[in-house]
UniProtKB/TrEMBL annotation:
Organism: Arcticibacter svalbardensis MN12-7
GO biological process, one term: regulation of DNA-templated transcription
Name of the protein this chain belongs to: Arc-like DNA binding domain-containing protein
Source species, domain of life: Bacteria
């Protein structure tokens, strides 16, 4: 498993409350939920980038 890097995150309290609720619904920690959401966003970005590239 890759080493994880810690960093400070400043987040709007309302957003944090929503993420906390979502994490609880999915049986994850807040940190785990944020990491999951970032991973999903990166996968979606990669998929959309592949669709935008013209076929050569």
């Amino acid at each position: 498993m890759a080493e994880k890097k810690a960093f400070i995150l400043r987040i709007n309290p309302e957003v944090l409350k929503e993420v906390e609720s979502w994490a609880t619904d999915e049986f994850r920690s807040i940190n785990g939920q944020i990491e999951y959401l970032l991973q999903q966003a990166l996968l979606n970005r990669k998929k959309s980038m592949r669709k935008k590239k013209p076929d050569l």
